[in-house]
């Protein structure tokens, strides 16, 4: 199956993405430079060896900009996640049901993914989230209500910023 990648600028920073005919396979969080965005995807870029296609992610870029401008985060971009483990796919699907402006815990996510005792595995699924923001792992908090783990060079401050954008006050 053909795969491609590209980088694009948003009002919040640079995003890198890898796609296929089925949808987006990986995306970075907004980063300060295109190189930092690509660094976030270094492992899948090496593994998948996609071709560079500038402009291939224009619909995704537009939806991200709408979200960053205060949109609700309703996504109309297909995802290609079929090669992930079944538990990760269930956890990611459950995460996508969390409404903008609301949060849930890793325990809630584990239960929704079919294994209430797997809070740590749910945390691993969020840590390995291949399409952050679309799969809104920033809406998942620890049982203490605390912010835990977030990828990219911008880390937890970005998680807090995304939650504030959605109206979550902590």
Instruction: Specify Rg, calculated over alpha carbons.
Output: 15 Å
- In the sheet with the most strands, the strands line up as 3-2-1-4
Distance between the termini: 44 Å
**How many beta-strand runs?**
6
Coarse morphology: globular
The number of helical runs is: 7
Category by helix and strand content: alpha/beta
Q: What is the ordering of alpha helices and beta strands?
A: EEEHHEHHEHHEH
Parts with pLDDT < 50 across at least 5 consecutive residues: none
Helix content: 25-40%
Main sheet summary: 4 strands, mixed
Quote the average pLDDT: 90
Residue fraction in strands = 15-25%
Describe the structure.
- A hairpin with a 2-residue loop joins strand 1 (3-10) and strand 2.
- The model has no long low-confidence stretch (mean pLDDT 90).
- The protein has a 4-stranded mixed β-sheet, sandwiched between helices.
- The protein is 36% helix and 16% strand.
- It is built from 7 helices and 6 strands.
- Helix 5 crosses helix 6 (119-127).
- The termini are far apart.
Q: Key terms for this structure?
A:
36% helix; 170 residues; globular; two-stranded parallel ribbon
Q: What is the element layout, followed by pairings?
A:
Elements: E1 3-10, E2 13-20, E3 23-27, H1 34-40, H2 42-48, E4 51-52, H3 58-68, H4 86-95, E5 104-105, H5 106-112, H6 119-127, E6 140-141, H7 155-165
Parallel strand pairs: 1-4, 5-6
Antiparallel strand pairs: 1-2, 2-3
């Amino acid at each position: 199956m053909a795969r491609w990648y590209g980088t694009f600028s948003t009002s919040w920073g640079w995003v890198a993405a890898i796609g296929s005919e089925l949808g987006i396979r990986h995306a970075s969080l907004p980063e300060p430079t295109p190189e930092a965005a690509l660094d976030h995807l270094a492992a899948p870029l090496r593994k998948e060896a996609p071709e560079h296609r500038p402009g291939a992610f224009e619909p995704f870029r537009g939806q991200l900009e709408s979200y960053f401008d205060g949109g609700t985060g309703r996504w109309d971009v297909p995802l290609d996640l079929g090669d992930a483990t079944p538990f990760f796919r269930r956890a990611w699907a459950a995460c996508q049901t969390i409404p903008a402006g609301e949060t849930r815990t890793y325990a809630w996510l584990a239960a929704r993914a079919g294994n209430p005792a797997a809070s740590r595995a749910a945390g691993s699924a969020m840590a390995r989230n291949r399409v952050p923001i679309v799969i809104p792992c920033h809406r998942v908090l620890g049982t203490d209500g605390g912010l835990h783990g977030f990828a990219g060079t911008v880390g937890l401050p970005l998680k807090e910023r995304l939650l504030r954008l959605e109206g979550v006050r902590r």
